[in-house]
Amino acid sequence: RVLFDFGSGATANMFLTPDAGGAAGLRFAITTQGGCCEQQITYNQELRTGWQHIAVTLSGSTGTLWLNGQAVATNPNMTLRPADLGATNQNWIGRSQYSADPFLNGTVDEFQIYDRALDGAEVRSLMSSAGGTPVGGDVAWYRFDEPSGATALDSSGNGRDATIATISADALDAIAVIDDQRRQARVVAGG
């Protein structure tokens, strides 16, 4: 299960999962050389049931994983940046690039990408209002508030609209249902 997975295959990718290598807890990882060389930030506590606000920031060489406005894990040795992945063609919210990984069984309320790391106050502001004090992701901002259709509009103004993929009703128990009324998770990435 992943909250997001962006990349171009097994060699170059970054992902955030609520299931850190099969163990309870959050993990963000980024690599340009495959699984052997991932730079990770891991929080080894099981997520409680219900709505959670999750963010990842990369500032200098420090990566921070945020849960409900609190920094819960850091790695001071993060040298890779999302730009190091190069052009990516497998960018998913709620599913993995790897077909063996199950889809997210949860709900994503918002997904924002910034061109810089947010500070703690900015991360916390996202919990109480759409866009918070940074006024939404400046690279991409998906609110998932469209009443219907297969497009998630990019509210950043950059025109990076996304396609909402659907699957058969037989597989509904294994997918991320995009439903902003249930407000199960907000995912924010920046840095």
Can you offer a commentary on this structure?
This protein is mainly beta. It is 3% helix and 36% strand. The protein contains 1 helix and 13 strands. The protein has one helix spanning 120-125, and strands at 4-7, 13-20, 23-31, 39-43, 52-59, 62-67, 70-75, 90-93, 110-114, 140-142, 151-152, 162-163, 185-190. It has a 6-stranded mixed sheet. A 5-stranded antiparallel sheet has the order 4-3-2-1-8, with no helix packed on it. A two-stranded antiparallel ribbon has the order 11-12. Strand 5 and strand 6 (62-67) form a beta hairpin. The two termini are 23 Å apart. The model is unreliable at 169-191 (pLDDT under 50).
In short:
The chain has 1 helix and 13 strands; from the N terminus they run E-E-E-E-E-E-E-E-E-H-E-E-E-E. With 191 residues, the protein is mainly beta. A hairpin with a 2-residue loop joins strand 2 and strand 3 (23-31).
Task: Map the helices and strands.
Blueprint: E1 4-7, E2 13-20, E3 23-31, E4 39-43, E5 52-59, E6 62-67, E7 70-75, E8 90-93, E9 110-114, H1 120-125, E10 140-142, E11 151-152, E12 162-163, E13 185-190
Parallel strand pairs: 5-13, 9-13
Antiparallel strand pairs: 1-2, 1-8, 2-3, 3-4, 5-6, 6-7, 9-10, 11-12
